[in-house]
Amino acid sequence: MIHSDVSLENTLALHSLASHVVDIGSVGDAQDAIEFGQANDFELRCLGEGSNVILMPRVSGLICRVTQADVCILSSDEDTVTIAVGAGKNWHELVQETLDQNWFGLENLSLIPGSVGAAPVQNIGAYGVEIAEHLVSVDVVRADGALHKMSAADCEFGYRDSFFKRYGRANSGPLLILGVTLRLSKRPAVNLSYGDLRKAFGLGNMKRSVLPSPQQVADAVVTIRRGKLPDPAEYPNAGSFFKNPVLDPKTADRLHELGSKPYPFNDEFKVSAAQLIDLSGWKGRRQGDVGCWPQQPLVLINYGQATAQNVLDFANDIQRSVFEKFQVELELEPSVLS
Ligand SMILES: Cc1cc2nc3c(=O)[nH]c(=O)nc-3n(C[C@H](O)[C@H](O)[C@H](O)COP(=O)(O)OP(=O)(O)OC[C@H]3O[C@@H](n4cnc5c(N)ncnc54)[C@H](O)[C@@H]3O)c2cc1C
Asked: Which residue in 29, 87, 92, 170 has the fewest CB atoms around it within 10 Å?
């Protein structure tokens, strides 16, 4: 059933009304939505839990929200379990449920807001782990209504990037993700590569004979995140607003001289966008109801009644300042839906 003039939930607390919304619980629903969109010339757009989007006051087209949220075991052996998960499942709930079952691998991705269906879109990652490492395939419905299984290689995952993001930008509609298949380990092998996590367990640079359990790692990630990031329920935000720029060695050298600390990343370098924003004098700054979170300038907060345009203008001012100082372009992480 298609609903009209629906107010859209989002963690930035922006007021946004969608012209048409449909909830999708099956492949048949998805095919009906595509047919309806084509018949009425409505562009299809997907929305999960609204934690990585900037929603304009009116969103046109047909918004598709996948509600299918089942978790089922596809195969299991001594070492691994392969599960299929509906796109409508809440990500953090999934992480907790897998740990309850002693299925490991997602613990570092605890407390990332949003739905399972959106997770491959930006290849969610935190504390040294990305979903790409555990993803086997993604079930999508294409514009012609056909159900298609995309392998992890088809998804072309990159840093906060995937085929889905690029496809959405290049085509008039998205690929509708109905579910994902993940392979998890039955043997605990925790990833403590991230400095804050090592510190939480008193590891420093030393090795310890008894490592924390995956559940302990998940608990530590939750504690660290709660200490660092504002809770969107209290301070509406969309998480990191800009991606960390990837740099060539020459630019990395130049930025180093200007006081930032680029670090090696694959064959290139990456620099913390937060550091560039901080060095450009934006930490804790506020214009009207939009501001940079004082402890983490990468997070923009809606302190009251900010509009999407207010947020984008503020972001634009930051981008301009950073470019003037460093000649580096900051790219927005959330997508804009209008
Ligand atoms: C406080 C906070 C902390 C965060 N921390 C992290 C972090 O540590 N790491 C990280 O990677 N991200 C982080 N994020 C960003 C966000 O949590 C993730 O991007 C998440 O995957 C978004 O899920 P969502 O359901 O809210 O997606 P939405 O915001 O609703 O949508 C995001 C994008 O995915 C598309 N999409 C959604 N569902 C589907 C579908 N079924 N099919 C096709 N396309 C779809 C949308 O069109 C949109 O382009 C954070 C956000 C917040 C608010």
From this structure: 170
